[in-house]
Design goal:
By secondary structure, this protein is mainly alpha-helical. The chain is 65% helix and 6% strand. It has 36 helices and 8 strands. An 8-stranded parallel β-barrel has the order 1-2-3-4-5-6-7-8, surrounded by 8 helices. The longest helix is centred in the N-terminal third of the chain and has 35 residues. It is globular. Homotetramer.
């Protein structure tokens, strides 16, 4: 065992011991002994001991109803504490001689490599300064951790960092242990699960809290280190207004299938963001004013402040008053429209101007070392977050727009727009977009759904341009989908350009994406109104749910290639927006590798991608972890731009075509065509129960129906809870097996060695197979599934085994993830706590289905705690 592994296990053991003490204090020694028997039984069973498995099963079977919730809570908390230990382990202080983590050195090493490859200093500096990466934070129906607990977990991590100092006295170490004990007790005695479903505004506040507590601090640090690295390699610095990484959000703007997101909600979230931004800047400006006490100033600053003895403080004081006015106005506006006083800040330039004035003066007066401290950090935040904190996207389903247009044209006596073909729609839309007269008469009284679409468009038109990102059209399939939104926005009074973004989600839509965009770019007048890049969103979740990850991944790749070519031919810049989830089944996985595996030319200095729910917390919830992940984004986008991956060889393409065809056929033969599949899915997984639990503001289904009606997130989440992980691998086992049987193993190995796209797919497949567990999945079947469906469960587990075997055959390893011992270590640490939760969840599901129980009952709470614990243990769950 390495020293690093030993440290991780020490931290996990310590936190577990402290939690055990807290549990003993509340429930007594006998109950803690039960918990310990369960843990030891799970560990022994995992190592193959029949006695351990029997001990685990007997202890769980003997639990009384009133013990179910505290046992579930105990293992849920153990897993959260293990997560904290692992997260801290990734950023812990290294002893002399230990390697610096890859995430910390990746950007510096890339710059060195680029310079060694002959990249010009000035061109390289320009490219870094022009990078445009936007991370779009989205709500997540499986993120169950409450903000109050997240803050306690962060405090525990901070104590682990304090404890890591090697020069602590015995008293200091005891003091840290006492603080850890108290924090763990506070977490244990805090109800970890919300009782009511969060509102979209609650979700937005959760997203703002991630910025307030983590990204606000991580971003300037990332920029400072990138600036220093660039200066070392090129002698040049980043421009003051450089913002290579920005943030947007769907929380409060994503109304696709979520009736709880209304125009009123969107307005409230926009105002809350302005309030939060002003409040954060006010905190910074107070500390900055305390530091900038210098008297010497250049003529430019003196012209602004006169003979003030403290000119920098005088300027900051004026800015502070304007920020206070802005915060007050935003707060008052939440209750209803309020006229903005003259002091309210509306433009980022008004916030930036006084700060740049101070910055220039300090440099002119030989105080550059002061200017490049907290003042420069402040300027970096202004460039990144602006006055609006995040840019809010709006998302709505294409059918809602078509239905609204149909209602309008029907009222006008023109027929039903939603029954017209594409040519009729385009002809009508183009004529109305170029018309100067309004389309909607004053006496038009829309239905509730159409009124909501129009109200949303009015909120978009009324909001400041800098507060908004894109208007995303889910389930888009044609050029008319884009023009319909443009027309609705025009009717709402929008007179400025706004990116209207088609989202291509299903396999058929991905295959048709380039055709739709080519038609759009060829329309008279469309290109002239772009005023920027053509943004196109690629859907990972629904395409994988539709066709399986084998065919979906190849369709996404080919769609991007085609879009790059089409936009190049039309001389239009392309911005690809990647709708990735947290799991492999939804396009998730390590961002660095995923970006480097995109088609050549598809990144080109800019990238937009979603960051989903619980992955936001795991990747950006702590400043140090956030800094590492932002570094990975910076490095990957720069490398994909300047050192793009190779164009796939014809033989590789032909092989992927065959893999995709075999993959989709196998996937659909199970998911769509097997007559027992839907019933098995509902019995073997907690799918039905998830819909009842208060996990997010959005319903689990878009509409009533079978698997096709489920959202991609609960579809993936349900399979993850049982460890079958079916959506992430189903289809690959047949596709790869068939290729090997055709004697194409050498070609597959060549593709894995030379083609980042294929290598990344196999690596992500291997990771998810390592987390899958046939024995756990069988346990759910035995407890929950009627005997008539057992053969289907056995068949799926056999396919899972085949998938593992074929990946091992391809990689030449003796076991999955043999090349990544640290990841294996993390999985091993968690399994000891996960196994009892799976057993307990299966029992809870069985009891829940056998009896009536009230919402919020101990049984339902215990079930929800088990869901949360398994999600925490597996991390990338939905």
């Amino acid at each position: 065992m390495t020293q690093i592994d030993a440290r991780l296990r020490e931290d996990v053991h310590q936190l577990g011991e402290l939690l055990g003490g807290t549990i003993r204090d509340q429930y007594g020694e006998a109950f803690l002994d039960k918990i310990e028997r369960i843990r030891k039984g799970a560990k022994a069973a995992r190592q193959g001991s029949a006695d351990g498995a029997r001990q685990l099963s007997d202890t769980l079977d003997g639990l009384h109803d009133d013990e179910l919730l505290p046992v579930a809570r105990a293992f849920n908390q153990f897993l959260n504490l293990a997560n904290i230990a692992e997260q801290y382990h990734r950023v812990r202080r290294r002893d002399v001689g230990e390697a610096q983590p890859f995430e910390d050195r990746v950007f510096d090493e890339l710059l060195q490599r680029l310079r060694a490859n002959g990249h010009d200093r000035e061109a390289l500096a320009r490219q870094v300064g022009r990078l445009d990466i936007e991370l779009v934070l989205t709500a997540h129906p499986t993120e169950v951790a409450r903000r109050t607990l997240i803050q306690k977990y962060d405090a525990i991590s901070a104590e682990l960092a304090e404890q890591d100092h090697r020069d602590l006295s015995v008293a200091e170490r005891d003091s840290i242990t006492s603080r850890l004990q108290r924090l763990i007790a506070e977490a244990w005695h805090t109800e970890e699960i919300r009782r009511v479903r969060p509102t979209p505004v609650d979700e937005a506040k959760w997203g703002f809290a991630v910025i307030e507590n983590s990204l606000w601090y991580a971003l300037p640090s990332v920029m400072r280190k990138a600036d220093q690295a660039l200066q070392r390699e090129t002698g040049l610095r980043l421009p003051l207004d450089a913002a290579p990484i920005r943030f947007a959000s769907w929380m409060g703007g994503d109304r696709d299938g979520n009736p709880n997101v209304t125009a009123k909600v969107t307005r409230e979230v926009l105002l809350l963001a302005r309030w939060m931004a002003a409040d954060l800047y006010l905190r910074d400006i107070d500390s900055l004013a305390a530091e900038l006490s210098m008297q010497q100033a250049n003529d430019e600053l003196r012209a602004r402040t006169g003979d003030s003895a403290e000119p920098y403080r005088a300027v900051l004081k004026q800015l502070r008053e304007r920020l206070r006015a802005t915060r007050t106005w935003a707060h008052e506006s939440l209750a209803g429209p309020v006229s903005a006083p003259a002091q309210v800040l509306h433009d980022n330039a008004d916030l930036r101007g006084p700060l740049q004035l101070c910055y220039r003066s300090l440099h002119d007066c030989g105080m550059g070392v002061i200017a490049d401290g907290p003042l420069l950090d402040f300027l970096r935040r202004v460039s990144t977050f602006g006055l609006f904190l995040v840019r809010l996207d709006v998302r709505q389903d294409s059918t809602r727009h078509a239905s609204a247009m149909g209602e309008i044209t029907d009222y006008l006596g023109l027929g039903r727009y939603d029954t017209w073909d594409e040519e009729q729609r385009l002809e009508f839309l183009q004529a109305e977009l170029s018309s100067r007269r309004p389309l909607l008469p004053a006496d038009f009284r829309p239905s509730g759904e159409t009124a909501e679409v129009l109200d949303t468009c009015r909120e978009v038109a009324a909001a400041p341009a800098a507060s908004l990102g894109s208007y995303v059209i889910s389930m888009a399939g044609a050029a008319s989908d884009v023009l319909a939104v443009q027309l609705l926005l025009k009717e709402a009074g929008l007179r400025r350009p706004m990116r209207v973004v088609p989202l291509f989600e299903t396999l058929a839509d991905l295959d048709n994406a380039a055709i739709a965009i080519e038609r759009l770019l060829g329309l008279p007048g469309y290109r002239a109104g772009l005023h920027g890049p053509q943004e196109v969103m690629i859907g990972y979740s629904d395409s994988a749910k539709d066709a399986g990850t084998t065919a979906a991944a190849w369709a996404q790749y080919r769609a991007q290639e085609s879009l790059v070519q089409i936009c190049r031919e039309h001389q239009v810049e392309l911005l690809l927006f990647h709708g990735r989830g947290g799991t492999v089944g939804r396009g998730g996985g390590p961002a660095h590798e995923a970006i480097l595996s995109q088609p050549p030319g598809s990144v080109n200095g800019r990238l937009r991608t979603t960051e989903q729910g619980e992955m936001i917390r795991f990747k950006f919830g702590m400043p140090d972890i956030a800094e590492q992940n932002l570094n990975l984004y910076l490095a990957a986008v720069l490398e994909a731009t300047l050192l793009p991956p190779p164009v796939p060889q014809p033989a590789w393409r032909e092989q992927m075509d065959k893999l995709a065809a075999d993959g989709v056929a196998t996937y659909r033969s199970v998911v769509r065509e097997h007559p027992q599949f839907v019933e098995y899915f509902r019995q073997a997984t907690p799918e039905q129960e998830l819909g009842r639990l208060p996990l997010g503001s959005r319903p689990a289904k878009r509409r009533e129906g079978g698997v096709e009606s489920l959202r991609a997130i609960p579809w993936i989440f349900a399979w993850t809870q049982t460890r079958l992980m079916l959506p992430a691998w189903l289809g690959w086992e047949a596709a790869l097996r068939n290729a090997l049987e055709r004697g194409e193993g050498d070609l597959l190995r060549e593709m894995r060695e030379q083609w980042p796209f294929f290598r990344t797919r196999i690596d992500m497949l291997e990771m998810v197979l390592a987390k899958a567990d046939e024995s756990i999945a069988r346990l759910y079947d035995e407890r929950l599934v009627v005997s008539e469906l057992h053969s289907l469960g056995a068949h799926l587990r056999d396919l899972l085994s085949q998938a593992s075997d074929v990946v091992l055959g391809l990689t030449g390893q003796s076991k999955l993830l043999a090349h990544s011992p640290e990841t294996l270590e993390f999985i091993t640490v968690r399994n000891t706590y996960l196994d009892p939760l799976h057993l307990l969840q299966a029992e809870l599901l069985a009891r829940s289905r056998q009896r009536e129980h009230e919402a919020g009952s101990a049984l339902e709470q215990a079930l929800l705690v088990s869901v949360a614990g398994i999600a925490a243990g597996l991390r990338n769950t939905g």
